[in-house]
Amino acid sequence: MATDTSKYKLNLKFYEHLGLSLIQKIPQPDAKFDLYFLAYDSPNSISHKAHWSDRQGILELTHNYGTENDPNYKPANGNSDPGRGFGHICISVDNIQAACQRIEDAGYRFQKKLSDGKMRHIAFALDPDEYWVEIISNNNAEETEGIKETDPSTYRLNHTMIRVKDHTKSLQFYQETLGMSLLRTKESPSSGFNLYFLGYVPNANNDVNTAPLEGVLELTWNYGTEKDENFKYHDGNSEPQGFGHIAITVDDLDAACQRFEEKGVNWKKRLTDGRMKNVAFVLDPDGYWVEVVQNERYKATSKY
Questions:
Q1: Segment 98-107, tens digit of pLDDT
Q2: Is 134 a catalytic residue?
């Protein structure tokens, strides 16, 4: 997942406090921006020492030069109008009470603490640009109540959440076009929404424990939005800017893009467009950008 950031030094410090490591930086001085790729990379991590294109969970921060010096610049975090669309990223932790206390002790703010509201098993921290970071537990939260220690090397970059207008169209796109599996569904009729968790997990049966995983996509569907012809979520790439895209890596970039072409996808950028011939962007049913890049483990291109 990629987000625009103005306070890039503070954000790097924040995400490193959450246990993430900077595994790749791609400077683009001619275009006046830099890309920072962060992931969990300890020996306990799922993708230890893997190439950035061969990881299950990775966070891309985009720093546009000069935004850090503009007091009026503020990325849209996706959770208020007119920029509502993207919701949050999520990390799963070992002992959630201790993990949240460690974040609070470091002086970071929360959108929702564990003690707020009815849901005492999740929290939302705020990064320096006020993007929401959900905190969930790998273990039963009731059983970790008295534990005072937490080990960030065991954390997982669990999921990215986006809101969708029509769950049927979105599920069809992510499953049939992008090849994801539906891992878990959470229906909340009393609150008027459903959550759908998708990812690349073989033989998934819609009853997967997703907390230990990385690279999961959460779709939030609020009932009735699909019936409103004028309703539209914000993709994050038009004003007000903030969230950029999710990304998938593929075994053969040319073949994958040919397959997408045959399936009639809407393109934001084909491989042949522009100067960057090693990246494509397709659009999901809500207009969110999905970056498509080569997984270097399958076919090294020496372009990164």
A1: 999 999 999 9
A2: yes
